[in-house]
Write a structure and sequence with these properties.
Length: about 150
């Protein structure tokens, strides 16, 4: 996992903390994903990435699939994994830019280190793409070439 901690990812997803005596762990996050994240987590992350674009959620899940998940109120583990990946990158972008609008600008602007693709497209495509975007964010945060 990246240097963004599980508690920050859980907060983005709207998962309540486990308690003051025990911080939210990566294992706890995995357990939540395996149990089925609530559909509300997808709504939260979609609103974080694109608050003015109500169709962004359909880039994550097709409309018919989302309609079925809204009836069950839970995402499958693979869908939850994608939502958690988006939350991890959102948390890293906020950690780097310290501002929602600046983070969005970075995520939706073509970047030369990913062959002119937008970071959000690369993150949605695969876990490998998310790693590339995390690397770029780390370079930006620590002042190396990005």
């Amino acid at each position: 996992m990246s240097e963004v901690a599980a508690p920050e990812i859980a907060a983005v997803l709207g998962i309540p903390p486990e308690g003051a005596d025990r911080p939210f762990s990566v294992i706890s996050l995995i357990a939540c994903i395996e149990a089925g994240l609530p559909v509300a987590a997808l709504d939260r992350i979609s609103n974080s990435y694109a608050p003015a674009d109500k169709s962004f959620v359909f880039r994550v899940l097709p409309r018919a699939t989302l309609d079925r998940r809204r009836r069950t109120h839970r995402l499958t583990p693979s869908e939850g994994g994608l939502v958690a990946r988006l939350a991890r990158i959102w948390s890293a972008a906020i950690d780097t830019w310290k501002d929602d609008e600046a983070a969005r600008s970075f995520l939706f602007r073509p970047h030369p280190l990913i062959e002119g693709r937008t970071p959000v497209d690369v993150v949605l495509a695969s876990e490998f793409g998310a790693g590339l975007v995390e690397d770029i964010l780390g370079r930006l945060k620590y002042g190396t070439a990005a």
